[in-house]
Design a protein that fits this description.
There is one protein chain. By secondary structure, the chain is an alpha/beta fold. Helices cover about 35% and strands about 15% of the residues. It contains twelve helices and twelve strands. The strands form two sheets. The chain has a six-stranded parallel beta sheet. It has a six-stranded parallel beta sheet with strand order 9-8-7-10-11-12, with helices on both faces. The radius of gyration is 21 Å and the shape is elongated.
């Protein structure tokens, strides 16, 4: 008789956009194993988000060991936990090494690690969008027999559990209704500058959106404050929230935004998953067919983002979020 699946490990180490997309598969894993004890193996940036997530009972942030002692410590922890099954949603060379260090008797493992017992053997997996690819992986693992795997059919990430944390808005007597706001995400990975639309163009877009009746909110890490200040020089009333929002707060802000515009970076995935009408800007550095956020999303792509005009983005913004009534 097969061993009952009571203890599960889910592996998802990075990055934010990928983590947000993986929430759809994580939800399905929890639905398939409602009474199991599920641990997420991840990295420190995702600890707070993961601990508030209803799909997990425990979170281990030691998923990227570097030294030999750290690798041995991870091996001891995972062996001691005696997991019945592992769902590897990272499916990288690194997560393959995690599988290999658990030999000679690794748990049942869903993924692409060499020698795993529940392999995702679809030869087209690397040509599938993350949402359909992970749904297909769970179909191969036997927990999603009718998984929607045609392009564009997989369910979106569900952030309702984050949005429930948002404080209720209380109208202030005698105050005018606040202006709708547009979220700008001008930053991104510091080592992938080719994925960024020039800040001068964000500045011009902010000025246009403000003139149309939108307040401007700028989101990013503390290292992107200089970008926010550059935008504020064009639109002094723009609000700089760089370095002041955790992942949950970004999602809550996005859920109430009239529009979100930004580069192909994690906060844009949060914004789209939270329901914001979203414009995401892609260079040739990544393929939106494989990794773009889904939802009320417009994708604008140019091999070189320097060539993407402000007029093109402003037109897309007007289609997604027409100017508010005066």
């Amino acid at each position: 008789m097969p061993r009952k699946v009571e203890k599960i490990l889910v592996v998802k180490l990075s990055a934010l956009g990928d983590f947000v997309l993986a929430l759809a598969a994580m939800k399905k894993i929890r639905q398939a194993h409602p009474k199991a004890h599920i641990t997420l193996l991840t990295t420190p940036p995702f600890e707070a988000l993961a601990r508030s997530c209803p799909y997990f009972n425990a979170v281990d942030t030691g998923g990227r060991p570097e030294s030999f002692p750290e690798w041995m410590a991870l091996r001891r922890r995972l062996r001691a936990a005696n997991f019945d099954r592992v769902y590897d949603l990272q499916t990288s060379a690194h997560s393959n090494r995690i599988f290999q260090v658990l030999r000679p008797n690794p748990p049942a493992w869903s993924g692409v690690a060499f020698g795993c017992s529940l392999p995702h053997k679809n030869p087209l997996r690397n040509q599938m969008h993350t949402l359909e690819r992970q749904a297909d992986q769970l179909m191969y693992a036997g927990i999603w027999p009718d998984a929607p795997t045609e392009p564009g059919t997989a369910p979106l990430p569900d952030l309702s559990w984050i949005l429930k944390q948002a404080p209720a808005e209380r109208p202030t007597p005698g105050m005018n209704r606040p202006r709708p706001y547009a979220m700008l995400v001008p930053g991104g990975s510091a080592h992938r500058l080719e994925k960024r639309w020039p800040v001068e163009k964000y500045s011009e877009l902010a000025r246009i959106l403000y003139s149309r009746g939108f307040d401007i909110v700028i989101i990013g890490g503390p290292q992107e404050t200089a970008l926010a200040h550059a935008i504020q020089r064009a639109t002094p009333r723009a609000r700089d929230l760089t370095g002041r929002t955790d992942f949950a707060r970004i999602a809550i802000l996005a859920s109430k935004a009239a529009l979100a515009v930004g580069n192909d970076t994690g906060p844009l995935h949060l914004a789209a998953a939270a329901g914001a009408p979203t414009i995401v800007l892609f260079s040739k550095a990544s393929d939106p067919a494989l990794s773009a956020p889904r939802g009320r999303v417009a994708i604008l792509q140019s091999d070189n983002l320097d060539d993407l005009s402000v007029a093109q983005v402003a037109q897309a913004a007007n289609s997604l979020a027409p100017a508010p009534a005066a």
